[in-house]
Amino acid sequence: MEFDRHDKARSLFMELAAAFVRDEANTNPLITVTNVDVSPSYQHVKVFFTTIPDGKEDDALIFLKRKGSDLREYIKKHSRL
What's the mean pLDDT in 64-74? Predict the structure, then answer.
């Protein structure tokens, strides 16, 4: 039962992170959310991503770190947790 809840939360975070990146990021580089890791206490979430073209991960990481608080607000606004 707890695993099912954790998996649903992971899916929700992944969907919302992808929607946020789609709405907020430039298309150069194209950022794709590939996975999300949620801690057992639900207090920490790691977002894994890839970019097109390869080698632009540093630019995407700078963007995601800069927009971290906006992402948290987006998740709060669009989820019922």
Answer: 95
Q: How far is CA 52 from CA 28, 57, 76, 77, in A?
A: 8, 9, 28, 29
The strand pair at 30-38 and 45-52 is best described as antiparallel
| Residues 6 or more apart in contact with residue 60 via CB below 8 angstroms | 25, 29, 31, 49, 51
| Cβ atoms 14, 38 nearer than 8 A | no
Q: Please state the pTM of the whole predicted model.
A: 0.87
Beta strands (DSSP E) in 12-60 are: 30-38, 45-52
Predicted confidence at residue 38, as pLDDT, reads 94
